[in-house]
Amino acid sequence: MTERTAILGGSFDPVHYGHLHLLKCVLSMTSFSRIFVVPAFLSNFKQGAGSVASADDRLQMLRLALEDFNDENPELAAGKQIIIDDREIRKGGVSYTIDTVKSIKQEFGIPERIGLIIGDDHLPRLGEWEGFDQLKELVVFLIFRRFGVKTPPPEGAECIFIDNPVFDGSSTEVRDGNREEELLSPRVEAYVRKHALYC
């Protein structure tokens, strides 16, 4: 049986339980069993804002978060693959989803559509994404509930709407010095404290 591949992109500044909740939902609620987690060097959606933590710190926190995830979800970790892919960080500058999707498909020889994991808050402007007309031919959008946005997807976009439990929390709250203990997995919280990030 062909392994179905999905991509989760983001700044992960920092990675938190909401991201891990999303991974758990993908693995438990869909047929996708291999997920590339792709941290952005600079997100197209956050140009001018930049990241608080360095790329190296964000990568290390992702590695630690996945260790926590595997410890807490051994039944999901078995037979599944979650791969941290640093191609956007190595490339530098602004990365566009269309370029990352094409690069991963080519490198790993993936002929079928890749699952692109997004929150429903992206729906209103999804059709404005760089290279959208080509992107919608290469992916199926896995749309997870985040804010309950009801905007219909752009015409021609193949979408799977996931009726997932909504996680209450964001990276912004951590950067603002709130809810660290609630939102960060143990290894990530220890790393943040050790390196005095988000202080």
Q: What can you see in these coordinates?
A:
By secondary structure, the protein is of the alpha/beta class. The protein has a single domain, classed as HUPs (Rossmann fold, 3-Layer(aba) Sandwich), CATH 3.40.50.620. Helix content is 39%, strand content 18%. It contains nine helices and eight strands. A six-stranded parallel beta sheet has the order 4-2-1-6-7-8, sandwiched between helices. The chain has a two-stranded parallel ribbon with strand order 3-5. Strand 1, helix 1 and strand 2 form a beta-alpha-beta unit. Helix 2 runs antiparallel to helix 9 and helix 5 runs parallel beside helix 6.
Q: Give the strand content.
A: 15-25%
Compute the number of helices.
Answer: 9
Give the tally of structural domains.
1
Provide the succession of SSEs. Answer: EHEEHHEHEHEHEEHHH
**Low-confidence spans:** none
Please tell me the overall pLDDT: 92
CATH topology: Rossmann fold
Percent in helix: 25-40%
Sum up the overall morphology in one term.
globular
The CATH superfamily is known as: HUPs
Strand order of the largest sheet: 4-2-1-6-7-8
Instruction: Report the count of strand segments.
Output: 8
Rg, Å, rounded: 16 Å
**CATH level 1 name:** Alpha Beta
Intertermini distance: 48 Å
CATH architecture: 3-Layer(aba) Sandwich
Structural class: alpha/beta
Task: Please describe the biggest sheet, giving its number of strands, its sense, and whether it closes into a barrel.
Answer: 6 strands, parallel
